[in-house]
Amino acid sequence: EPEVTQTPSHQVTQMGQEVILRCVPISNHLYFYWYRQILGQKVEFLVSFYNNEISEKSEIFDDQFSVERPDGSNFTLKIRSTKLEDSAMYFCAPKPISGNTIYFGEGSWLTVV
Amino acid sequence: EDKVVQSPLSLVVHEGDTVTLNCSYEVTNFRSLLWYKQEKKAPTFLFMLTSSGIEKKSGRLSSILDKKELFSILNITATQTGDSAVYLCAVGGDTGNQFYFGTGTSLTVIP
């Protein structure tokens, strides 16, 4: 059972447009990851977020990307100016503070045209 | 450079067969190895392994870790069509808290 709800489940956007993907935790996790998976490829780490700050980010997570926790509970992943290669499934995944397992949300499928 | 390598890339078996999926890794400061099953959308968690030689079991699925040889195997006995999926291996280690994923093994079980 996923511990987060992700919205939208699917979004189609034009190249150059801004996109905001949302992650709503069901329980009060402090540690979150965003991963993405381009169709047919491996799951790739984007960024981790701990206690309202970015903890770690990958090379993929460039200036076009940002994460926020605007109201203290929901998380957002923003892509400022989408490119065709941003088309992918984006997963939000919380991790318990004391554990070493991550549980994926259902994902948001982004298609950039 | 791939830190997690899974083999085989794909596998087709008949119902009732037993399969073994492999995951080798190369990370420092190893923390844990995770197995997931991915059908249509999100990966669903199967096992977490942290200690060598201790088998984790859930029904027809089992997994074991060898920290000396840096690999893990996932066994599925008496396969069913519902086992058809991509099986992902992820390893936590190095600095930071991210997990590195392999490309997965695509399993197809034929009736």
* Biggest beta-sheet profile of chain A: 6 strands, mixed
Individual helix count of chain A: 0
Tell me the Rg of chain A in angstroms.
13 Å
The largest sheet of chain B, given as strand count, sense and whether it forms a barrel, is: 6 strands, mixed
Beta-strand percent range of chain A: over 45%
Beta percentage of chain B is over 45%
The order of strands across the largest sheet of chain A is 2-10-9-4-5-6
Oligomeric status of the shown chains? heterodimer
Poorly predicted regions of chain B are none
Query: N-to-C terminal Cα separation of chain A, in Å?
Result: 32 Å
**How far apart are the termini of chain B?**
38 Å
Which structural class fits the helix and strand makeup of chain A? mainly beta
The ordered string of helix (H) and strand (E) elements of chain B is EEEEEEEEEEE
